[in-house]
Design goal:
two-stranded antiparallel sheet, alpha/beta, Spore Coat Polysaccharide Biosynthesis Protein SpsA, Chain A, about 375 residues
Length: about 375
Amino acid sequence: MFKEIKMQLIKSILRKFFSCTISLMIRLCRNEKVMLDIFSRSFEKYSDNYFCYKLRPKKADYFIPSNIKTTTTSGEFAIVLQGLIEMRDEFTFETIKLYRRLFPGAIIIVSTWDYTDPSIVRTLELLGCEVVLNKDIPVCGLGNVNYQICTSLAGLKRAKELGAEFALKNRSDLRVYREFAFEYLKSLVELNTISSSNVYGLKGRIITQAGNWGQMFNPMWLQDFLYFGYTDDLINLFDIPYDDRNIHCYRKDNFDTKRVLTGETLAKWPASEINITKRFIQKYHNSDLSLKDWWNFLGEYCYIVDSEDLLTLWNKYGLNDLGQFYCEYDGKHNYRDPFRHISSSDFINIMNHKYIYEEWMENEKANYTIE
């Protein structure tokens, strides 16, 4: 206990020291890139790692539009921003402003709650959004999954009413920075067709972003940051029963006696991103898929893109170490098999049966642990 308190105190002191130092350096230098260059060179001098960084503007005003024209027609595409409005740095407002520049002609729908401050709702309307206000639901579901189901489905139904053929379901605290992202995603759907007589009634593939660590060997893990596809297909995906458990935060209650959370527990709960896929598949047949079955489903009906493909930023959990979050390198090593996610290149290999399935893979999620 004393060691933990001591470590927390040291972290607090260092955090304040670096905060004051960086604030002073920015004021004196007035050039963030020069400051970061000095820091990165100093870091590399004393570390076994190279230091790489990416900057993302907080404000939409910095965006410089392209003169390239596309074949996209006005109203063809809808973006559904779902969930609570993220007010830190006016994040959701700035996302909408950026999307107005990135995706001219797109329908922007904000699907949130009826208890949202009226001044916020008014600002959303002034920004040209369709606002869908949902009544609060009494049972949140495991890990708040029902909130996502409710706001996503309501927003997608509004997109269909407004005539959008394609839709992007986008968390309100996640932002896409990639210009022409819609044309890219639409092209993936058009190039990678599926059987029109499939049991799920899908018109095309459902596209998601690569998840974080542990996704590779955990069946039905489609990351729920965003989904793209035909509007009808996303309505189909979210037109699922609510979870009957009223548990907001489940992680601390599901650690084992060694304070370790395993991939088996993630699958058993299941976690929200697995829960949504599982409930969708349950509408059509038994959802207890083996890993082999899941890889077949994934390769036939889905598509996974990397964060870099869309230049996404998730404004949560202080995710500055993207190498760790996306299972690339932990500062020394690449990630072991149980911690692998499914990158875009992994997905293409799975879709084209380039990975040889073996029985040991079925139990690999047991070796995935979070302390």
